[in-house]
Design brief:
The protein is an alpha/beta fold. The protein has 18 helices and 22 strands. The protein binds nicotinamide-adenine-dinucleotide (NAD) and (2R)-2-hydroxypentanedioic acid.
Length: 527
């Protein structure tokens, strides 16, 4: 039974899927301190949060069973991604569900700041009938500058066009063709600062976007410009904005997000009549909260049940077309990794993965993760496809990928070579239609064996009677041989024997095998 902890008032309708799942129990909690969460987190397989709960390194360290953190929303700046990746915890988000809600709040803010709606409301309910102070401006024919033309920025642009605004966008990933298609002009941050009547930001908060609008940009702005931030606190320099309002450059601002949330009681935004503030409400619509909770619940279930998932933040996304090609190979890849990891002694220096045949021409990185996971899981605990590459790198294991379009015998072939300081070994496998996964080569020896169950890999010199000796010893100790393969290059030369057995070979029997003078090496594997 999987235990899921749901925090921060995530929509009940959205988590119905988890409540209905027979293999899941759900606990709902809110407002826990870091220490309170640390005290209970070891019980849980999954944690679901909005932006309120900070999932810190200390929480991750206490979360011994945790497989997944689900963020019901876009931004994952409240989750320590590095700590999650190191521990193999998948972090997923729901990138699409609250786009429209946040876009609409941005528009509401833009209209509010154009017409001073909250300020006028406050006076009116206070008994004043003030029709002189609140003369606003129209949006039509005004220039809107948008920094960040992703999901939300693009939706804002679409609506602005309908309002008759001219839109200038800045986004490193916005091509001229796409800009033209959506009717947006391209501009730099400084060009936008100089030309816009309204500026709205829709980027993530990164080192590059922190204070992307600061004193130098305010100095370029036209008098009367209005500024909106419904993305992340810190993208606009708050103190520089207050100065620009005081100097008369900025006519008004509307903020949903702050450098520190909630802002301190003496934050200069809170008593400034030209700044409209809301408490991080961008995603707070019934529809958005249901959407994001449903999306995250689905993904959490996939991860708990070891099924394919898509929205992992600490793993690059894989297009469905690539995933469809690669997925059948995941088990083979992991087993090849386990095989070579268990048969190679000494510290691994390099893993060379070669793809041939139909596996070339696609980005095989996800499959490589399964292979590396298989190799490392022999030596390390808690390796999974999220942290496999990170663990390899942190242990100075070089992962090399090779692709060759030609595979002489098979339509597809995956080879894994492991290099240690003094040694190297290779295993290759394929997926045979109707037969499933097969190991087809071990070092220089061609073989044909299903990579399942208990295996014995024995290297020896090719002499008469050896197979009999091994069979007799195993038989006398009640170890039944299910299949056997022998491989050699030349008569009387070095050879290998690969046996599958119905049960694990006991340690003392392995010891007796190793003492047979004709055998060079004996490895027991479990796949
Ligand atoms: N207020 C809220 O409640 C709320 C709700 C949802 C999202 N958000 C925030 O809104 C922001 C946008 O969300 P989204 O879903 O549109 O994200 P998105 O990933 O679809 O778009 C972000 C865009 O920013 C661009 N970008 C990155 N660095 C940039 C830079 N240096 N200069 C210009 N552009 C840059 C990216 O290329 C991308 O196109 C995020 O910060 C998100 O956390 C806030
Ligand atoms: O209300 C929330 O959960 C925050 C939403 C928003 O900031 C996000 O990043 O998705």
């Amino acid at each position: 039974m999987y235990k899921v902890l749901v925090m921060d008032g995530i929509s009940d309708l959205g988590i119905q899927l988890l409540n209905d799942a027979a293999d899941v129990t759900v606990d709902k909690k809110a407002g826990l301190s870091e220490d309170e969460l640390i005290a209970i987190i070891a019980d849980y397989d999954a944690l679901m949060v909005r932006s309120q709960t900070k999932v810190t390194e200390r929480i991750m360290a206490a979360a011994s069973k945790l497989k997944v953190v689900g963020r019901a929303g876009v931004g994952v700046d409240n989750i320590n991604l590095e700590a999650a990746t190191q521990r193999g915890i998948v972090v997923i988000n729901a990138p699409d569900g609250n786009t429209i809600a946040t876009c609409e709040l941005t528009f509401a803010m833009m209209m509010s700041v154009a017409r001073s709606i909250p300020q006028a409301y406050k006076k009116t309910v206070g008994g004043e009938w003030d029709r002189k102070t609140f003369v606003g401006v129209e949006l039509r024919n005004k220039v809107l500058g948008i920094l960040g033309m992703g999901r939300i920025g693009s939706e804002v642009a679409k609506r602005a066009k309908v309002f008759g605004m001219e839109v200038i966008g800045y986004d490193p990933f916005l091509t001229e063709e796409r800009a033209e298609k959506i009717g947006v002009k391209l501009g730099t941050v400084n060009e936008i600062s100089a030309k816009a009547d309204f500026i709205t930001v829709h980027t993530p908060l990164t080192n590059e976007t922190r204070h992307i609008i600061a004193r130098p940009q305010f100095e370029l702005m036209k008098k009367g410009v209005r500024i909106i931030n419904c993305a992340r606190g810190g993208i606009i320099d708050e103190m520089a904005l207050v100065e620009a309002i005081e100097s008369g450059t900025v006519a008004g601002a509307a903020f949903d997000v702050y450098e520190q949330e909630p802002p301190q009681a003496d934050h200069p935004f809170l008593n400034n009549p030209k700044i409209i503030v809301t408490p991080h409400l961008g995603a707070s619509t019934v529809e958005a909260q249901e959407n994001v909770a449903i999306d995250v619940s689905e993904e959490v279930l996939h991860i708990l049940r070891d099924e394919p998932f898509k929205n992992a933040v600490n793993m690059p996304p894989v297009p469905a077309t690539v995933m469809n090609k690669l997925q059948p190979y995941f088990t083979l890849g992991e087993k090849l990794g386990q095989f070579i990891g268990q048969t190679t002694e000494g510290a691994v220096k390099e893993i060379v993965v070669s793809y041939a045949g139909e596996l070339t021409g696609v980005d095989t990185t996800p499959l490589t993760r399964y292979i590396v996971k298989g190799v490392l899981s022999n030596q390390l605990e808690g390796v999974n496809i999220v942290n496999a590459m990170h663990l390899a790198k942190s242990r100075d294991v070089n992962v090399v990928i090779q692709q060759s379009s030609a595979s002489k015998t098979f339509t597809n072939l995956v080879s894994v070579k492991l290099k240690t300081k003094n040694d190297e070994h290779l295993v290759a496998g394929t997926l045979l239609s109707g037969y499933g996964e097969r190991i087809v080569q071990i070092d220089q020896y061609p073989v044909d064996i299903a990579p399942n169950g208990n295996l014995l890999l024995i290297s020896h010199n090719d002499k008469p009677g050896i197979i009999g000796k091994v069979g007799t010893l195993l038989g006398n100790n009640d170890v039944n041989i299910a299949t056997m393969q022998v491989g050699r290059k030349v008569i009387g030369g070095s050879a290998i024997m690969l046996l599958t057995t119905d049960k694990q070979t006991p340690k003392e029997v392995l010891q007796q095998l190793k003492q047979l003078p004709e055998l060079i090496d004996v490895n027991e594997l479990s796949l």
